[in-house]
Design goal:
CATH class of chain B: Mainly Alpha
Number of helices of chain A: 4
Order of helices and strands of chain B: HHHHHHH
CATH topology of chain B: Arp2/3 complex 21 kDa subunit ARPC3
Radius of gyration of chain A: 24 Å
Strand content of chain A: 25-35%
Low-confidence stretches of chain B: none
Helix content of chain B: over 70%
Mean pLDDT of chain B: 85
Distance between the termini of chain A: 70 Å
Number of domains of chain B: 1
Largest interface: A-B, 52 and 46 residues
Low-confidence stretches of chain A: none
CATH architecture of chain B: Orthogonal Bundle
Mean pLDDT of chain A: 81
Order of helices and strands of chain A: HHHHEEEEEEEEEEEEEE
Largest sheet of chain A: 7 strands, antiparallel
Helix content of chain A: 25-40%
Strand content of chain B: under 5%
Oligomer: heterodimer
Distance between the termini of chain B: 38 Å
Number of strands of chain A: 14
Shape of chain A: globular
């Protein structure tokens, strides 16, 4: 009997604390996150992960596992690598041609006015969002674009802290960014974690021969950066709308080279 | 003394939470995650449920919302507290056997990962949640057995 009433009392107190959490939630909601930002700004020293710590983890090598078999395997791997390098030489020739094709794309970006900050991934939270290095210390703002090493947009900043930021990436289902093609058609690019879904929101000219969907200053973005390449994808048109689905073949890791784009 | 105990529980919860996030560094963002914080929540909710941990549940959620998400303040606290109540309630209603315990653990993982279920529900996601449940339930049992073992009672 005593145990039952104790259990009930526990439940009541837990429920009261859920209501307290709800009250805090409402305060934050109605203050448009000013409440949580104020507290996180003043207690940023409680965030324990730094870029130096991550680099330290990355540099740890487990050399003690090496033995004779490993060396034999390594030798075989190197031989294979030589064969692969010969194949890569052929691929390289193809890439040289592609570079010249991409020159037109590069011309669209005003490089003089832009700074690229190299960043690294610090942590992934339970909602599969990433925390990256760089925050208010380098004047980052919400919605600043994140590019990969090929210059494609792979995310944008959703929350800025002192020395780190939370980003929404193309592998988050909440990812949503407007874009424009070379004909002036506007799109909303969203993600289902495996694929990018490109749907037109404004049509200027129906033309399915689209090369890239870019960010643009008309959406308050810093300039033209490619979000997705459509030249090799199936683009469909129906009811005065253009749509396409593109597989995401980009994976985030601690070695990922990501860049934050800022205006000078 | 009570304040000190509450503070130490809060510290323990936050440490395990940070540990869980750091484990992600070694796993290189694999879908199959090890979730020590969830194991702790489950252990407290099923074996040691009491008011003593309420501040730990609440403040670990607040800490998480402050530095690791773009969620509104308090939403993760509510989630952790909800896991505590729901798991304890279901666990008390079901018979104490391995299948039921695993089922309760699966429910805990489902609540813990509810954002993924809501935003991008698919059979593949469900399969991943099931695999996460199996791996972490195994770890929970391992920790549970270790904690239960009383070396002084063992006959030599």
């Amino acid at each position: 009997m005593y145990q039952e009433s104790q259990k009930r009392r526990n439940y009541i107190i837990y429920i009261l604390f859920i209501f307290l959490s709800g009250a805090v939630f409402l305060v934050d909601l109605f203050s448009e996150k000013k409440f949580s930002n104020l507290i996180s700004d003043n207690t940023d020293f409680l965030f324990p992960v730094s870029q130096e710590a991550i680099s330290l983890f990355d540099s740890v090598e487990l050399n003690f596992l090496k033995n004779k078999n490993d060396l034999i395997n390594e030798n075989a791997r190197l031989k294979n690598e030589v064969i692969e390098l010969r194949k890569l030489k052929l691929v390289n020739e193809g890439l040289v041609k592609e570079i010249s094709a991409n020159n037109e794309l590069i011309k669209n970006v005003d490089l003089d006015n832009i700074i690229y900050y190299k960043s690294t991934i610090l942590i992934r939270n339970t909602e599969e969002e990433y925390l990256i290095s760089g925050g208010r210390n380098i004047n980052l703002n919400k919605n600043d674009l994140i590019l990969n090493e090929e210059g494609f947009v792979v995310g944008y900043i959703v929350k800025v802290f002192d020395d780190h930021s939370l980003i929404n990436t193309i592998i988050n289902s909440e990812f949503s960014i407007p874009g424009i093609d070379q004909y002036g058609n506007q799109y909303l690019v969203t993600s289902n974690k495996k694929e990018l879904l490109i749907n037109s929101i404004y049509i200027e000219e129906i033309n399915l021969n689209i090369d890239y969907v870019f960010t643009d200053v008309v959406f308050d973005q810093i300039g033209k950066f490619p979000i997705v390449r459509l030249s090799n994808e199936d683009v469909s048109s129906a009811n005065n709308k253009i749509s396409a689905v593109v597989n995401i073949d980009y994976n985030f890791s601690f070695d990922s080279n990501i860049y934050i784009v800022k205006e000078k | 003394m009570k304040t000190l105990t509450n503070f130490s529980y809060v510290l323990l919860f936050i440490t395990v939470l940070i540990l869980e996030l750091l484990i992600g560094i070694f796993s290189e963002f694999s879908d199959l995650e090890i979730l020590p914080f969830l194991i702790l929540l489950f252990y407290i909710s099923t074996k040691n449920f009491s008011n003593a941990y309420i501040f730990a549940f609440f403040f670990s959620g607040i800490y998480y919302d402050l530095f690791y998400t773009s969620n509104y303040f308090g939403s993760t606290s509510a989630k952790f507290l909800l896991i505590g109540i729901v798991i304890n309630f279901i666990n008390n209603k079901l018979n104490d056997n391995l299948y039921n315990e695993f089922l309760v653990f699966f429910v805990a993982v489902a609540i813990y990962k509810f954002e993924i279920i809501i935003y991008s529900f698919s059979i593949n996601e469900l399969r991943i949640i099931l695999l996460i449940s199996v791996i972490n339930y195994f770890l929970f049992k391992l920790i549970n057995i270790t904690l239960k073992r009383d070396v002084f009672k063992k006959s030599i």
